[in-house]
Amino acid sequence: MKPAQLDRRQLMLAAGLAAVGAGAQAGANPGSRPLTLGTPADPQLLRIAFGSCAKQSKPQPIWAAVRAARPELFLFLGDNLYADARDADTLRQRYAEFRRVEALQSFRRDVPHLAIWDDHDFGDDDVGGEYPLKALSQQLFCDEWGEAPDSPRRTRPGIYEAYRIERAGRSVQVLMLDLRFNRTALVADPALKQGYAAMYAKSKLGGGAMKGWYLPNLDPAATLLGEAQWAWLAERLAEPADVRILCSSVQLAAEGTGWEGWSNFPLERQRLVDLIREKRAEGVVVVSGDMHYADLSRWDTPACYPLWDLTSSGLTEVWDIPTPNSRRVSEVFAGVNFGLVDIDFAGPSPSLTLSIRDVKGDTRLQQRLSLDQLRFPKA
Fold this sequence. Notes:
The chain has about 375 residues and is of the alpha/beta class. It is built from 10 helices and 15 strands. The chain has a 7-stranded mixed sheet, with no helix packed on it. A hairpin with a 2-residue loop joins strand 5 and strand 6 (about 170-175). The chain is globular, with a radius of gyration of 19 Å. The N and C termini lie far apart (about 55 Å).
């Protein structure tokens, strides 16, 4: 399979990654890759868009709205296509279908972008490290998303990677996590899983929240990232950065949904907070996907600043039944959508604006944060 063709703008992005080319194998965990995004319209601003859940068999008009927002970078957060493949031929065929979605591929040709995967493009619904075709999936992913032959993403246990953008004398780190390749199988309540039709009908008719059937796994051996990725992440969080965009294919902060998310692995989620504290890694904001709706969650933890998690999903897929989330601080937008992270470095107090826009480009959710709100409490 040949990688997708790249035009001038994507080649510019690739050139910005060249520093890790031949030397990438020198260490197991080379530092964050430098990104070159071209000359910005305003050197004090940086706009990054993101989204998830785009089924290749459906129309994708959302790309016109994303393009009109003029992001300098787009982050694909997973379910970028729906493979749902249990054999190698199907997995390859789904990528061929993905390449025929012209609105998407035109956008990819014009706008620099980065990608991680979630379950449906990794392999199949809700799968993790047990997926038997994961080595092939890693190869096809790296081919499609233009990874060089010597890219660490081809040989690591997973497609996780980190990038660095320099702007206005500041540094923005983009941390792309892999929550599939090493993940322990989920624990489910079999009674709830068997009663899906009844759960759906009750919530749809009664208007109540529909909680899923997954349960927290408290086994200390259970993992979401895998030890190699944890070691890599510890090194990346030790790097200096003013803003860190943590890209998670599933929700990090949401609590009580019963569906997929970090809440299914509470020890792993706490490990992440502990690591952020240990490395004194300030400026972390989370962008996530998966849920087929958009919302904003806030997680307050002791001796740390709040972790904000903006979920954008989906680019085609919409789930119009609410799910419980005790950390939700916004309305739920159940419509086709994409997310934006706007960083403004002007003035003495830089700021971030997190927002969700719909297929018309209208803003549906918005939260402004000062970088001072993403700092550790003073002793």
